[in-house]
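Continuing from yesterday's entry. The apo prediction looked reasonable, so today I'm repeating it with zinc ion included to see how the binding region is handled. Same sequence as before; SMILES copied from the compound registry.
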Amino acid sequence: MSKPVKMPEDRQRMKDAEKARKIEVEIRKEKEKGRQEHEKGTYAQLRRDIPASPSIMQRSHSYHNIAQMRDDPDLNVKHETPHYDRTIKPLQKPQRSEVSAARRRNFNPVWGNMGKGITGLKNLGNSCYMNSIIQCINNTTPLALYFWKGAYHEDVNYDNNSTRGEVAEEVAAVVSALWSGQYRSIACRDLKNVVGQHRKQFQGCEQQDSHEFLTILMDWLHEDLNKRSRKSPLKETSNDNLSPADQAWEKFRRCNESLIRSLFYGQQKSTVRCCKCSEESVTFEAFSDLSLPLPSSSNKCSLVECMKLYLNGEKISGWNCPCCKEKRDAIKKFDIWRLPPILVIHLNRFYHDGWWRKRQTYVDFPFNLDMRHFSLVPDQRYVSYKLYGVSNHYGSMEGGHYTAYCKNELYNKWYKFDDHEVSEISNNDIRSGAAYILFYTAISGNSS
Ligand SMILES: [Zn+2]
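Holo prediction written out below.
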């Protein structure tokens, strides 16, 4: 984020200059705060035999941090002497992005270096659905790097009608904070506020569906980062020689160009066939996840079974058959046409039979998923995937809790993210009846 932002419009340049000035002020404040806290910390060390008063306890976060920093051999803080030396810099110079993120957004952090990406998210009142999704997003490596390293700056579209770049900015700030490795946990209240501003449903403290949140978040991120809504759509080229699938994909790409689209979007063929006259209607549509049904008969199944159910098709009624010119029963089925680099699979546990209910089915999903088992057109670029994230839902419709299991690519280990608590988890514990959304990443160079 220290990279200067290049924007063509003067207005944006002025905005950036203004932003830079604000960041400078924040850094000065932060340095001053660090100096003051170091003094306090030294003072506390001198008084360490005296029991802490409640007011000291309240500020234990910063003390804890200072104490840790002093013990960190990487930091050039000399503390053999209890006397405070003003010539010694109290803290390692904070990264600009970290300062601006922490200060502008008030993450209300609990300090403590657990490792990069090993930071919990405080519950802001039933916000576990959001925390679960953010941890999965945060462990989507290309997306996390894009936000963390500031590359997204080039793409943010502050003029779009829906969220004006706000969601992208907030997600970037959260991701940067999570990967800074400074915090045991943070509260992403600003992201939640922005989300609530744009969708009333997420404003309060009610339980929400993490899949619905993911879908909306991805839409917003795509809009915020869509280069095509800023530039004009790509000119339609002559594509008569393209297949209908490729034509549909080209049309989609002409208006949608973002990292979200490149990573998460695939294409499927949707066929509706009249049960009376066999007339077919075929459309090619983009998808950002596959929403798989679960078998109704058993309480244990494999992901392959769910995938087959999804691809087998289902009976729909009241389809307007263009041939019969009447409402007919029909079979609607999907074929996967183009697989994305990041494959998100939603296990559709919730169903309606007068009441909303949840299936607690244990779905046996693989760590290594080979999509070649399913009806695919040949020449797929991505077919082999490995699991890196699971959003879990425990409980029922009435009340439940979300957690996330994510593989940290830096440490090559799985962690359980349960709101503010993060703990290492064994591979054997990843599969459970709570698995709700699965995140797979393509294994590169394995597209034979
Ligand atoms: Zn018909």
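Comparison notes:
- The chain is about 35% helix and 25% strand.
- Residues 274, 276-277, 279, 321, 323-324, 328 surround zinc ion (CB under 6 Å).
Will overlay with the apo model tomorrow.
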